[in-house]
Amino acid sequence: MLLTLSALVLLSLVVLRVLNGFLNTNSILMETKFGVLGVSLATSILEEAMGKAFDETTANSGVAYATTDLSSIGSDGEIYPNFDDFDDFNNLNFSTYDTTIESNRFAKMYSAEYLVNCTVGYINPASPNQFSASKTWHKKITVQITTPSSKDTISMSTVYSYFYYR
Predict the structure, then answer these.
(1) pLDDT at 165
(2) Whole-number pLDDT of residue 21
(3) What's the CA gap between 29 and 164, in Å, rounded?
(4) The pLDDT value given to residue 58
(5) Quick one: pLDDT at residue 10?
(6) Per-residue confidence (pLDDT) for residue 117, from 0 to 100
(7) Taken in order 95, 98, 100, 104, is the CA torsion positive or negative?
(8) What span, in angstroms and rounded, lies between the C-alpha atoms of 45 and 11?
(9) What is residue 68's DSSP assignment?
(10) Which among 38, 62, 104, 118 is most buried, taking Cβ atoms within 10 Å?
(11) How big is the chain by its Cα radius of gyration, in Å?
């Protein structure tokens, strides 16, 4: 009888240990999945921004001759996803569950809700981690992705520079 009881206790401990290992593995797999999807979302937004014109001036005329010709940071009246230049992405904030954005290709990502926040600013190449108060030939976009399903915040940046060759 005592031997049977000891065997049952030992079997229960082994089963609990195995189940605990499965639960830990599952949470790590979910964190990884949310991270990969978040990085994919940030990369998509960065690539979309890099595909736009450098500035409103260059979007319309194709050429800017001096930094004074450049526009201010921010949307010039366009609404996402109809941006025509890089700095229109400044202060773009949306949720992937937000279906009010016209043709939101990120809407209803059924794995989790992602919150997107973009900031754009002029930078000086000597100090690329700080936005510059003056206009330069370089703009930096930072995309931050968060999700209530994960404790991590994904932050990705890229610099877009304007060069004109005759």
Answers:
(1) 58
(2) 72
(3) 47
(4) 84
(5) 83
(6) 96
(7) positive
(8) 52
(9) G
(10) 38
(11) 24
How many CA atoms, within 13 angstroms, populate the side-chain half-sphere of residue 96?
21
The pLDDT value given to residue 88: 94
**Distance, CA of 48 to CA of 106 (rounded, Å):** 13
- Among 98, 118, 123, 119, smallest CA distance to 109 is for 98
69: its two tokens = 């010709």
Here the tokens at position 99 are 């279906």
* Token pair for 109: 């990502």
- Which residue has 């931050």 as its token pair? 144
Residue written as tokens 């025509």? 84
- DSSP run (H or E) holding 16: helix 2-50
Please state, in angstroms and rounded to a whole number, the distance separating the CA atoms of residues 120 and 104. Answer: 21
Amino acid, single-letter form, for residue 78: E
Q: Spell 97-130 as b/e; 16+ CB within 10 A means b.
A: eeeebeebebeebeebebbbebbbbbbeeeeeee
Report the pLDDT value the prediction gives residue 24, as an integer from 0 to 100: 72
The CA-atom distances, in angstroms, between 93 and each of 101, 114, 128 are 11, 11, 23
Please, which contacts does 131-134 make with residues 24 or more away whose CB atoms are closer than 8 Å? 134/67
Domain ranges of the chain: 2-161
Q: Which residues of the chain have pLDDT under 70?
A: 22-23, 99-110, 164-166
DSSP class of residue 106?
Answer: T
